[in-house]
Amino acid sequence: MNATVAPATAATANANATANSTEWVALDWRGQCVHIEHQWLRRDDTSAPLLVFLHEGLGSVSMWRDFPAQLCDALQCRGLVYSRPGYGQSTPRAADEPLAPDFMHRQAHEVLPALLQALGVDAIEDKPWLLGHSDGGSIALLYAARFPEQLAGAIVLAPHILVEDISIASITEARTAFETTDLRRRLARHHADGDSTFWGWNGIWLKPAFRSWNITADLRRITCPLLAVQGVNDEYGTLEQIRGIARVAPQCQLLELAACGHAPHRDQKDRLIAAIRNFFQHHQQPSQETHP
Hints:
Blueprint: H1 10-19, E1 22-29, E2 32-41, E3 50-54, H2 67-75, E4 78-82, H3 103-118, E5 129-133, H4 135-146, E6 153-157, H5 165-180, H6 183-188, H7 194-205, H8 216-219, E7 226-231, H9 240-248, E8 252-257, H10 264-267, H11 269-284
Parallel strand pairs: 3-4, 3-5, 5-6, 6-7, 7-8
Antiparallel strand pairs: 1-2, 2-4
Helix pairs in contact: 2-11, 3-4
């Protein structure tokens, strides 16, 4: 859900564009044909596990920058990075179509399964791993709860399980930044319709009806290995967001990072990759004890 967009240089943009080939796939979703932007990483290593990346509330394929490639190299796994409908270069959301309070449930229960099927991923025979950031982390949790037999494990970075006062305050500040700073211009570099992307996200989070949004009850159904990561200085949520997961999903491993805000993959990338590698390797080989 992070509204902070790191400046993009021409060199960075070109490097990201040439590193992986962007493709599109059409989905029939809720009576509309939507085209989903996606990239494959290490695609030819068909025997390797698959890790699917779920971006934040203002994210996209390009806004991940080189983190997915670095992590997939560290884990020796395949990667799938995609932009949800309304984000990146995927089909934009119509300006007069507000997000519904269950928008993350729809992404977890409808869009992600349809995308995997359209791309030929058999989630039962080739169970993917999910890595989600912020809203993407919440979507990963909701998918894990709904489809426990179709998931190998999940890593969630700064996920949301409930709406807190700190969340509302920071999102309100993001609205001011969008209207008064260069945030609008920077988002436009990453989205086909940056205004639609921003106002869809900002609008739903600030709706009074969304204040009661809470997915804690859903989390009780999660059975897969789970790593939940959050920065101690996260400006969009307190540590209750991940500690609350562990209370209802006792298999959840927590990682609380000092000197880290809402984006652990930017603020503490090396430490995060090391922790994910240990977690991933342990659960890839459950019969062998591993040590940090």
